Automatic annotation (TrEMBL):
One of its GO terms (biological process) is dolichol-linked oligosaccharide biosynthetic process. This is Glycosyl transferase family 28 C-terminal domain-containing protein. GO terms for molecular function: hexosyltransferase activity. One of its GO terms (cellular component) is UDP-N-acetylglucosamine transferase complex. It comes from Lupinus angustifolius.
């Protein structure tokens, strides 16, 4: 269908947790305007256990269409069909997205104490595999992002990242 070819979906996932600050951020007018300005047409948000419900919108009026759901048995198809993924910093979501070669913005839940997920997100951002943001800086990250500057992730990269995380957590190197 002709309309489907022009659909550029941003898929947002919070995993199985509660991450209302991320959902509120992507539902803000400034983030939706930045996404629309970058050529995205639809925003699909997986809410997890959160209580904040975004504003649904069809997107027919020259704005971003917005829809959401709480849980799904798998988000693999949502990731594969997305033009951009915005994810919490869970390693499963990160590596599932990178494995299929989708551009990714990882947003760290700053409400979690001793959050080792920050280490993973920072390391992968330093390697130019993804962008890294907080809920407060997400709009600026979207505004500044240049997806052509991202380096495709190769599964062979996991060993140094895993070693880095293990050292951070105090496990000995093998």
């Amino acid at each position: 269908m002709e309309g489907e070819d022009k659909r550029r979906v941003v898929f947002v996932t919070v995993g199985t947790t509660r991450f209302d600050s991320l959902v509120k951020s992507v539902d803000s007018e400034i983030v939706k305007q930045e996404l629309f300005a970058k050529g995205y047409t639809h925003l699909l948000i997986q809410l997890g256990r959160g209580s904040y419900l975004p504003s649904k919108c069809e997107g027919d009026d020259g704005s971003l269409g917005v829809d959401y759901f709480t849980f799904s048995s798998t988000i693999a198809e949502n990731i594969r069909s997305a033009s951009l993924v915005i994810s919490h910093a869970g390693s499963g979501s990160i590596f599932e997205t990178l494995k299929v070669g989708k551009p990714l913005i990882v947003v760290v839940n700053e409400d979690l104490m001793d959050n080792h997920q920050i280490e993973l997100a920072e390391e992968l951002a330093d390697r130019k595999h993804l962008y890294f943001a907080s809920p407060q800086t997400l709009h600026q990250t979207i505004s500044d992002m240049n997806l052509s500057s991202l380096i495709p992730y190769s599964p062979g990269d996991a060993t140094p990242v895993a070693k880095h995380i293990n050292r951070f957590l105090g496990f000995p190197d093998d």
